[in-house]
TrEMBL record:
<keyword id="KW-0808">Transferase</keyword>
<dbReference type="InterPro" id="IPR009163">
    <property type="entry name" value="Ap4A_phos1/2"/>
</dbReference>
<feature type="domain" description="ATP adenylyltransferase C-terminal">
    <location>
        <begin position="180"/>
        <end position="278"/>
    </location>
</feature>
<dbReference type="InterPro" id="IPR036265">
    <property type="entry name" value="HIT-like_sf"/>
</dbReference>
<dbReference type="GO" id="GO:0016779">
    <property type="term" value="F:nucleotidyltransferase activity"/>
</dbReference>
<dbReference type="InterPro" id="IPR045759">
    <property type="entry name" value="Ap4A_phos1/2_N"/>
</dbReference>
<feature type="domain" description="Ap4A phosphorylase 1/2 N-terminal">
    <location>
        <begin position="4"/>
        <end position="163"/>
    </location>
</feature>
<dbReference type="Pfam" id="PF19327">
    <property type="entry name" value="Ap4A_phos_N"/>
</dbReference>
<dbReference type="InterPro" id="IPR043171">
    <property type="entry name" value="Ap4A_phos1/2-like"/>
</dbReference>
<dbReference type="Pfam" id="PF09830">
    <property type="entry name" value="ATP_transf"/>
</dbReference>
<keyword id="KW-0548">Nucleotidyltransferase</keyword>
<protein>
    <submittedName>
        <fullName>ATP adenylyltransferase</fullName>
    </submittedName>
</protein>
<dbReference type="InterPro" id="IPR019200">
    <property type="entry name" value="ATP_adenylylTrfase_C"/>
</dbReference>
């Protein structure tokens, strides 16, 4: 596809026009705590908040599978022989993509070479932040396996809120950045990884397995995975929520979504890092 970004934008405009794409409006602000900056999004105003809450609840319903069948208006294209790319129906940021297995596989399953090959194919055309919520405890809202990709940068940050810290790690071994107190392991990815798509899936799978081993994760252990073209981060999960606030993978790069000002106050008073530590 000659210009994948333009193609995604075109599909999104058509999906908005027909009502298939239902963005969740938020108000973004930067909070600084303990020397770290966080991007916190709060659902916007009372009426929109109630509407968005209903959308989030529908998005989290396990009674139906929104990917089988998928909404045709949200279809971006096939990715290899085993995946398709869809727009995220209830998006907070534009160009939020889902890389979904064509046949049902469980979100709690391990990510495999085919999954990583499909992700690499999309990231080669639209570099961004990819993430995976491995199981309900890790914030997964759907049981059908899907990786997610959001564009970068997360304004006003140059990439993500924690990218400066994650980029400072050197060497080819899994490491922990001391300034991020939650349980994690991070690896730097080699430059040009996505230039050779014939090997990218295999190499991403190798790094994924190295991180799992470093964290001693069992096959059924819940976890979050995040990666950019420069680094891969894995976080074990012990709980989905802290004081009623749900966290998915994006929280561990410093991007938080809260439902209302009350939850924002909870985070201000309790401490965002303390919340992340308690669920990892």
């Amino acid at each position: 596809m000659s210009n994948f970004k333009d193609h995604v934008d075109s599909i999104a405009r058509a999906a908005i026009a027909c009502g298939a794409l239902q963005s969740i409006p938020t108000e973004a602000q930067v909070l600084e705590q303990g020397g770290l900056k966080y991007l916190v999004r709060v659902l916007d105003n009372l009426k929109r908040k109630d509407e968005a809450r209903a959308r989030l609840e529908r998005a989290g319903s396990h009674n139906t599978n929104p990917f089988l069948p998928y909404e045709e208006a949200l279809y971006v294209g096939d990715v290899g022989d085993y995946h398709r790319c869809l727009l995220n129906k209830f998006n907070v940021v534009k160009q939020h993509l889902l890389i979904v297995t064509r046949e049902f596989e469980a979100q709690s399953d391990l990510i495999n070479r085919r999954d990583f090959a499909a992700l690499a194919e999309v990231m080669a055309q639209l570099p961004g932040l990819a993430f995976y919520n491995g199981g309900e405890t890790a914030g997964a809202s759907q049981p059908h396996k899907h990786l997610q990709l959001v564009p970068l940068p997360m304004q006003p940050f140059a990439e993500t809120p924690f990218s400066q810290q994650l980029r400072s790690i050197r060497g080819d071994k899994p490491q922990r950045y001391e300034g991020l107190a939650f349980n994690h392991a991070v690896l730097q990815l080699p430059a040009g990884l996505f230039d050779d798509l014939s090997m990218a899936g295999n190499r991403l799978l190798e790094y994924y397995r190295v991180l799992r081993e470093a964290l001693a994760l069992g096959r059924d252990s819940p976890y979050n995975l995040l990666l950019t073209p420069d680094w891969m981060l894995m976080v074990p999960r012990t709980a989905e929520m802290w004081q009623g606030i749900s966290f998915n993978a994006l929280a561990f790069c410093g991007a938080i979504l809260v439902r209302d000002e009350e939850q924002l106050t909870q985070l201000r008073e309790g401490g965002i890092m303390q919340a992340l530590v308690s669920i990892s």
